[in-house]
Amino acid sequence: MTHAISATAPASHDDVPPLAERVDLLSGEGALDVFRRATELERAGRTIVHLELGAPDVDAPPHVVDAAVAALRAGDARYVAPQGLPELREAIAADVRSRGVDASADQVIVTPSAKTAVFYALLATVEPGSEVLVPDPGFPIYPSMARFAGGTAIGYALDARNAPDIDDIAMRITPRTRVLCLNSPNNPTGGALDAADMTRLAELVERHDLRVVTDDIYSRLVFEGGRAPTIAACDGARSRTMLVDGFSKTYAMTGYRLGYLVVPRPWVERLVTMSVNGHTCVAPFIQRAGIAALTGPQTMVATQVAAYRARRDLLVRGLNSLEGVQCPVPAGAFYVFPDFSALLAAHGLTSRAFADRLLETYGVAAIDGAAFGPRGEGRLRLSFASAQADLDAAVTRIGAAVAELAGSHHQ
User: In what side-by-side order are the strands of the sheet with 335-336?
Assistant: First the structure.
């Protein structure tokens, strides 16, 4: 007798075919994993200090919100050109020209987030079997996407400023090296290159015929000297660079998911075709918000940079007052990357174990430094985009965790 299988019966895992192997090459972000666990603890009644996400603690400027709402009310929610609204591309081109980048609106491709722009840029530049130079420590999506595109991610070190080490980059270039990933100011360290560094790096790029993907998402969030320089403005690199930027960090538009690419003209058509395959177009009401952000008042940006500078200084001072902790002063972005390695080594702890202890026992959500690459071991990334009261509470709680370790060491 045959028996009917119930339509509601759960399928065995053995019955589910595997996905393509390339999917296993992708890795996630430590910040989102920590955020999920932190919210679970909050639902259980715990009070958590959130320093894990790079998310401003303010809302987008009112004129940005108003532009999006007005566009929605006007029915501006239909398909639009895959490359982006002409007005937004003009505004983006004008903005990058103010940084010395020779670009026109026809070289701009609007994307649903800067992360999507990085993904497209690496898919378009990485050949199977080629090598991709990525910062270590650096944003974990760079090596993840490089692997997915068929390349091998090669980590390069940061220098004493926690900025990309140009000498180390030069040492790691081989005949297989094809792409350089650059992020200045750097996530997770906040270290930044200056204009002279960019010129030197551009010469290296030209000499070795490299393509460059430069993630400039923190370019406005610098604490001395105005806007961060970009390699896309340098002779030798401008014709081989894809510039990535977006609106999340500067304008507190994290949930809007709006980014862009600025690329050499011969690459535009194929990147637009990739956009058609990937996302069709970015919602026009979101693009209207981007136009308002770039062309409207910039008061919020200046206010936030000043607030971040003040928070940075207090957080660095507080962390450096703790026994066994060394915290460099970041030049940009809104992260500190304190070094706990001596303290942790004395107790046989990894930075992952310490980050877990901080969250589970002390209620501080921080990111394990090794999540950003092997050279991040012994460190944590803490975001100071949070309110000052949260930062003060975090230093107190981290201090208690450090004191407990130091006390057990002396017993």
Answer: 335-336, 380-383, 367-368
Q: Are strands 131-135 and 177-183 parallel, antiparallel or unpaired?
A: parallel
State whether residue 310 is helix, strand or coil.
helix
- Residue showing tokens 């081109």: 93
CB atoms within 10 A of CB 17: 4
Residue ranges with strand state E in 164-255: 177-183, 211-215, 241-246
Mind listing the pLDDT tens digit for each residue in 158-171? Answer: 999 999 999 999 99
- Residue that has been written with the tokens 């501006």 in this structure: 76
Question: Both ends of the chain: CA-CA distance in Å?
Answer: 72
Domains and CATH numbers, the chain: 20-59+299-410 (3.90.1150.10), 62-295 (3.40.640.10)
What angle do helix axes 351-362 and 30-43 make, rounded to 10 degrees?
Answer: 20
What confidence tens digit (pLDDT) does each residue in 26-83 have?
A: 998 878 889 999 999 999 999 999 999 999 999 999 999 999 999 999 999 999 999 9
Residue among 266, 268, 305 at smallest CA distance from 385:
305
Token pair of 332 as six digits: 């940009």
The per-residue pLDDT for 362 is 98
Q: How many residues are listed for the chain in this entry?
A: 411
Residue given tokens 């497209």 in the structure block: 120
For residue 52, give both structure tokens. 């894990």
- Kind and range of the H or E element at 335? strand 335-336
Whether pLDDT at 4 is above 70: no
Strand order in the sheet with 211-215: 108-111, 259-262, 241-246, 211-215, 177-183, 131-135, 152-156
Question: pLDDT tens digit string along 290-312?
Answer: 999 999 999 999 999 999 999 99
